[in-house]
Amino acid sequence: MQGVGAMPVGETMALPGWLQRGLVDLFPAGSGGATDPDQLLGSRLAEAEAAGRPLRVKLGIDPTGSDIHLGHSILFRKLRAFQDAGHTAVLIIGDFTARIGDPTGKSSTRVQLDAEAVEANARTYLEQLGQGQPRERALLDFETPGRLEVRRNSEWLAGLDLPQVIELLGISTVGQMLAKEDFANRYGSGTPISLHEFLYPLLQGYDSVAVQADLELGGTDQKFNVAMGRDLQRHFGQRPQFGLLLPILPGLDGVQKMSKSLGNTVGLRDDPLTMYSKLEKVPDAVVDAYLTLLTDSDLAALPANPRERQRAMALEITRARHGAEAAAQAQADAARLVAGASGSGAADAEVPEASLAAVNFPARAFYLLAAVGLCASSSEARRAIQGGGVRLDGQKLADPNQEFADTAVLDGKVLQLGKKTFRRLVAG
């Protein structure tokens, strides 16, 4: 992955190791001899420590979907590191901005969501981040007093009146907006840009003003929006925040970014076996990126053998999410399932269950895969079977129309989709 472990010029060697890990851009980075806390994050940290004041570290998320995957978790892990160092994480739920939709990375105007859908997604996000869970198992620390503020940006954005919106619009120019790569590409290709999309960076930037952020976390694709926050803080008489950017995680294919629409994700809600099985198939070229961005492991202490290093990475990430016992069990079960092509290994493995209760028998194979949730549709299931990617207790299913008479012929058997997804079929 380009940029993993890269350091911006200036102060980075004065920053603690936990902060430097995975960092690819920090702005402003100042110069080697400067001590200005508005130019050097190390100086801002020292200033805050001397004053007994934690930094306010902002991370905004727009709940435009219901699932968080490991690519998203990079930023949350860094936010947790700031919490553990004694600083205040300010997690902004973009319930207002989600209804506009971040144009970053989009080649067309996003569909606007209604408030109810956004709030439902926000609740699932907080659950996946660890709300209500012990801090030892949660991605973020919801328990320690003073370590987390969860804010919804409708608190301040919904009440803006027209003069205030006009003031925000007056801070930026059309030229600045068109310098944003996504807008520039769309404008150059003649793809429409709705005027409300220009508001998005301004509203995200205004979030930094509202919470008085010292630092904002973002992916490398968010630099324009984070820099806008600095501009707005200056306009409103605040100290500008620092921007700390982390890489975009490649997906399971090792090439394109991790994205649900590309089908190359590992979800935080994946069961241990599914998570481990996906991760141990990650291409060798990105294993170290996963280790750097998703674990605290010392890379120098891990096996040099690519296959062993891959397994170590899969085990550590699964352990961090599900605990050591569940991760070890997942690793053992994955080995049994791979070794048990004849079905003997599958019998001993602990595999997530899929109920046959909703299946109407007699059932054809393509229908079965869709009915138990392994495929989104019957047509997708047909393609998977015809492509040779489906096994039942280790035996390849070759005919999408193969028929199963009743639950008795399937109860207890393991249905496998590809190399990463396993479900034990149960009658109940």
Task: Describe the protein in words.
There is one protein chain. This protein is of the alpha/beta class and 428 residues long. Helix content is 40%, strand content 12%. The chain has 17 helices and 13 strands. The protein has a six-stranded mixed sheet with strand order 1-6-5-2-3-4, sandwiched between helices. Helix 9 packs across helix 10 (223-235), helix 11 runs antiparallel to helix 13 (306-322) and helix 11 (272-279) packs across helix 14 (324-339). Mean pLDDT is 87; it is low at 5-10.
Residue-averaged pLDDT: 87
- Per the principal axes of the C-alpha atoms, what is the gross shape? globular
* Helix/strand structural class: alpha/beta
Low-confidence segments: 5-10
SSE series:
HEHEHEHEHHHHHEHEHHHHHEEHHEEEEE
As laid out across the biggest beta sheet, the strand order is: 1-6-5-2-3-4
Share of residues in helices: 40-55%
Largest sheet: 6 strands, mixed
Number of helices: 17
Beta-strand level of the residues, as a percent range? 5-15%
C-alpha end-to-end distance? 45 Å
The radius of gyration computed from the alpha-carbon positions, rounded to a whole number of angstroms, is 24 Å
